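assembly run, all chains below
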Amino acid sequence: MTNHWIDIKNADAILIMGSNAAEHHPISFKWVLEAKSRGAVVMHVDPKFSRTSARSTFHVPLRSGTDIAFLGGMIHHILENGNYFKDYVVHYTNASFIVSDSYGFRNGLFSGYDPRTSSYDRSSWSFAVDAQGRVRRDPSLRHPRCVFQLLREHYTRYSLEKVADITGVSRENLLRVYEAYAATGVPDRAGTILYALGWTQHTVGVQNIRAAAIIQLLLGNIGMAGGGINALRGEPNVQGSTDHTLLYHLVPGYMSMPLADWQTLEDYNRANTPASSDPQSANWWRNKPKYLVSLLKGWFGEHATRESDFGYSMLPKLERGEDYSYLYLFDRMYQGLIRGGFIFGLNPANSVPNSNKVRKALDNLDWLVTMDVHHTETTDNWHRPGVDPAAVKTEVFLLPSAHRLEKEGSVTNSGRWLLWHYAAVKPPGRARSFGEMIVDLGNRVRKLYRSEPGAYPDPILKASWPEGYDADEVARRINGVFTSDKVVNGRRYRKGNLVPGFGALSDDGSTSCLNWLYCGSYTQEEGNKAKRRDPRQTPMQAAIGLYPNWAWCWPLNRRILYNRASVDPQGRPFHPSKAVIAWEEGSWVGDVPDGGWPPLSSGKGKHPFIMTVHGFGQLFGPGRVDGPFPEHYEPVETPVNRHPFSGRLHNPCYKAVTGDLDRLAAPADSRYPIVLTTYNMTEHWCGGGETRNVPNLLEAEPQLYVEMSPELAEEKGIRNGDPVIVESARGRVEAIAMVTVRMRPLRIQGRIVHEIGMPFCFGWTTPGCGDATNRLTPSVGDPNTSIPEFKACLVDVRKADRLEELAR
Amino acid sequence: MAKAFLIDTSRCTACRGCQVACKEWHGLPANRTRQRGSHQNPPDLNAYNYKVVRFHEDLKGGNIRWFFFPDQCRHCVDPPCKAEAEGYVEGAVVRDEATGAVVFTLLTAKLSPQACEAVRSACPYDIPRRDEKTGRLTKCDMCIDRVAAGMAPACVKACPTGAMNFGERSEMLKLGERRLAQAKKVYPEAALVDADTVHTVFLVPDPRVDFGPPPGIDLHAFLGEPRSASISEPSLR
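ok done. output:
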């Protein structure tokens, strides 16, 4: 989230899209309903009428995978009707930037596309610069090559007729949303967009969110109370694990994982440290070398010296262009290229697409170590239905794990708040926390390396590895410490003292820090700020529900990101009664500002979007691999074989693994005419491995179901409660039909298209509840993130004449 | 001072935190339920569910409506169940004057099945259910143990949206009027149900909505053996 949970109450318009907020983030609705009580309009755009829709002002059904068409139509509407917040757009976004002549877009393809590699050479997606290297701008926004005009031209195609025809949303409903949301394009109104996996899990996932960002920038909703782009992140500590880099392509703090091309620290810094010629651009990532060296100090301690390149050479390096995400990992496993590994806190045999293939892939392992609270479809894959355990060679270990309520540590919530939690009870038996298991395992490996020479012991033996796991000690290391005596802002710090904030991090080896974003969370002066529970606030903060002394928030306790965009160039709030920050008597009051510089008009200020090179919000976003503007493409499995925006049916860069089990339905495939979307549910958690073992939750949602419209049910001769078979090109699944008016048939290109929906939380280890829905979904993904397209694929459904997976 | 619930169903998202929290607090075992084409599960109140969220959906003039009703004992000011039970066993049903809680005691085990049925029939809201194993009559007890200790009932504590409220009856009635005024802006038919005669006041968006069982569900056949409360391990085949 750019903002935070409580801040939702400040919104005048709430667009919930790609999210079923009330069901999957129940606490969000405390604040959504608060905003609604104050007069906000709450709109839910989603294929299914859910418990979110029930409490929204209104619901609009659309076909899964057509969000960019819907949002592109909104961009078109905002531009054509002049609903954008002009001062904001001119001063704070890159609307005025002149794009280089080499950039172009034709028939669904941006310039630079190479069909052999299915990828773009992005060099033409650049800005024109002057002799000093500064971007050329036209604040009148009239230049035909300025971003504003290119944006207008790009979305001219997204007319109401075309959008309605492909999304299945009526013109009336389109206008109802567009008009209500575009009304926030004025200084004293704010709109927030709440999204979740309904946007990310598509082959155009990142561009869905880019489209939302463009809308928010046009309407001046970023940096404002009640505004922002708000990814609703889940209880599995998604925010914290992402910040600390669960994913392969980053190191902690959103810095790139080293590639094989960057053999030295200098190579890395040259490739990854952006430069700006504009003195008014903070270009915050210019500080990256300080953060990386501090991270290396954190990892390698005294062995990280200037002479040793701070240990950079000891890091593993990725091959450029290789994808190490789980889509590809399980494909390699299926091909027999992986011999063993660790899976903990994850149930891929249930939650990874094309799970029939994933389950077979796991059979190819010689050994597998799993760590979990319960037996899951992954830990017990070797004796799954239909498999002879004697024929599976894998030696499987299951290490019993502590539940999160049985251990101490931090969770970072969606609003980036670092919250400490305490162990409520001791873990039963010999169950232990992941932290303990990993630290001890590391020490065993270190001992082995010490006693027996290995091929390359340095990365293991020179790591700054603790003797035992201690959550408090890890929190201190994450915040960072001085590795030698140092004076910062007139204050003297001793070796071993905690670093007060990331402004004090250095690239000379004098600081160590496991994640620069969290620097300042644990200080000499105030201790572990994640433990703070102090509701004190100023009246200005109280007006927007901002609690600066409650826990701590990255970065630097800033609760609303890009808040410098909430004030005019003189530092006066655009919306005085819901001011986030204000420049008063020579200093900022309210939230922690995005940098303490004076307002822009002083000449000493900085542009507000400090994480971008130029300091402006990016309407034109050249950083993504599949285009600087979002463009509608159909899901890989789609019920249509053409769409009205271009001749390019699919995202030209989408990722896919191929093999004998990766079968795909053709566009408009008559064998699989129905769109399937998949989802979580309130009563079960993710793949259900934990909650299916909680009897009271299983009582409330006991078995796999498929939600379908009465119209489809009638067509197929299915009655409510009937057992059915849902089948895709990859697998078949048994489910109970839930025939409901909450699923509506959609009119697409003049004909009726049906969509059905299924949860993915059921699996065979819970007897009779059904088995993995993900046996249906395809191994295709977004080109930027490789997130699979769980939200849209093609199936058929028929009444079942006998059941094997479901107890009746 | 008399207490009351205010249940503002216009704010209910049917997360069922209340339904599960009630079971957890009372240590009730789970029923072995089945999916029958509805999210309403268990499909009805029973000896192991003093609270069940009921679902009702309809499609009228192109508009879908979905209403939720976290059903429970109303704790009547003048409880007919108590009057009825007294005819059979003195003290089987008591009313706590301090809170207004109507509580079924251990003495309900002395009621015959026919007497239990008579008590159930006396209830205008069809709340009491007989536990076939113990012979006792069961229902919501207002978490009177928690309330006596100054805590909110478990269902209220669990509610994230402000649908479940509990407090002094006079305060709850005032809150009800405020919430009603708010709800009427969206739902002109909204009403407070039986506010004068109960200690569990529901605010409903449309009083005409019937939360009867979903079609095709045999309410008498859904309860099987309770699930073991211990963690189940899959059997090795």
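Residues 219-237 of chain B have pLDDT under 50 and may be disordered.

Chain B has six helices and ten strands.

not gonna interpret more than that til we talk
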